[in-house]
Design a protein that fits this description.
With 164 residues, the chain is mainly α. Helices cover 82% and strands 0% of the residues. Helix 3 runs antiparallel to helix 4. The radius of gyration is 21 Å and the shape is elongated.
Length: 164
């Protein structure tokens, strides 16, 4: 393995470790909130019951948010791995960047226009949707990037199920 590959592996391990720590910390927080909620509910008074139910909703909502976010992250990572294996990643290595590392706006817009043509030619292909989502992200349109990435995930899943 090259030195770059080792560094990349370390960076991934650090990110996974951080995510795991945050999920564990959130889990601990959700358990504490749940215990407080149950204590308030058991109190018996109407105000405590109302607050307890409200507090109980928070960890349930939190678990749902964490679970859907982690599931989406795994799905996106799966698509990224497949795109990489197929050699279809967007090449941004030669594009000008801001000091922050983000692509210059004009370069990102040009990249998006290029990928948009590919996407319009084959809108039901998960690969073109994935690439369009990445181009939207580079162009700074996070809302559309998420929307198109969800479509890419759904299309890839449908393709996998059809093959099975």
């Amino acid at each position: 393995m090259s030195a770059g590959g080792e560094n990349n592996g370390r960076e991934v391990a650090k990110k996974v470790g951080l995510i795991a720590f945050l999920i564990l910390a959130l889990g601990f927080y959700f358990v504490l909130l749940g215990r407080i909620a149950l204590s308030l509910i058991r109190n018996g008074s109407i105000p405590a019951l109302a607050i307890g139910i409200g507090v109980l909703i928070l960890p349930l909502l939190g678990v749902w948010v964490v679970a859907t976010s982690v599931r989406a992250a795994f799905a996106h990572q799966h698509l990224a791995r497949r795109i990489h294996d197929e050699g279809l990643e967007l090449d941004t290595s030669d594009l000008p960047r801001r000091p922050s590392g983000r692509l210059e706006r004009e370069a990102a817009d040009q990249l998006f226009e290029q990928v948009k043509k590919e996407w319009e030619a084959d809108p039901d292909n998960w690969r073109s949707n994935y690439r369009a989502a990445r181009a939207y992200d580079y162009a700074g349109d996070r809302t559309r990037a998420r929307e198109v990435m969800r479509r890419a995930v759904d299309l890839e899943r449908a393709e996998r199920n059809a093959e099975a």
